[in-house]
Amino acid sequence: MPFPLPRWIAHRGGGSLAPENTLAGIRVAARLGFKAVEFDVMLSGDGTPVLIHDETLERTTNGAGRVCDTPDSVLFSLDAGHGGRIPRFAEAAALCREHGLLANVEIKPAAGHELATAAVVSRLTADLWRGAVVQPLLSSFSLEALEVARDLAPEICRGVLFEAPPPDWRAEVHRLRAISLHCDANLLRDEVLAEARAHDIPVLCYTVNAPEQAEMLFARGVSALFTDRLDLFLQIHCPPRPAKAGFSFRITGFESSASEAFRP
């Protein structure tokens, strides 16, 4: 059965209102009325899926080095902002289910770890959301990772991430049995939108922090936007878009129905 795609998705958990990719951020988004959050999942040195965007620890924690080389004993002792620690993926999933949030789980593999990351994250996503009313959406810039997700967790919906959609974007969406196209709001061409509309494929754009740009993108036919400025787009004033042909995910079935700091 289809369910509505919220117009607004909180970027990296709580956008600019909380440390990124943290449980605190997800709680902020839920408290402000957002119905969807996006976060990144990478493997630690011990193979544990955790929420973090960068391959290295310096920007978002008080640690140093590569995430994929750091053991859990060190990783979970770090400060990820305001005294919080890096969350396990399972913790974020439980919090999203508790608040009824749609989770856009971006598979974010470290270089050379695409297949292993995709296998762990896709299988665990299927397990963590088994029986949930609101199902998640997997996405990735790595087409390899999405291939693995398609094969290992076909019941979980997928979105294909590009900065600028290439000429063959729709062929990739079809090959990966994805339901949505995600791209940089500043690199979205009208012809891509027209093609997506003609084939009922929702287009989701990142990262939109200005009301004027948001209004323009919705007027052009974009389905949903990722934002850091949760304070500007409080969901009590911006309810989810009603379900309609081409702008809803399908929980069952796999046919389409529809600068670093600012990448998803």
Automatic annotation (TrEMBL):
Q: What is its EC number?
A: 3.1.4.46
Supply the name of the protein.
Glycerophosphodiester phosphodiesterase
Q: Which residues form the GP-PDE domain?
A: 6-237
Q: Which PANTHER family match?
A: GLYCEROPHOSPHODIESTER PHOSPHODIESTERASE, CYTOPLASMIC, GLYCEROPHOSPHORYL DIESTER PHOSPHODIESTERASE
GO terms of molecular function: glycerophosphodiester phosphodiesterase activity
Under Gene3D superfamilies, the record lists: Phosphatidylinositol (PI) phosphodiesterase (3.20.20.190)
- Which is a GO BP term held by this UniProt record? lipid metabolic process
Which UniProt keyword terms apply here?
Hydrolase
> Top enzyme class of this protein?
hydrolase
Q: Write down the PROSITE patterns for this protein, in alphabetical order.
A: GP_PDE (PS51704)
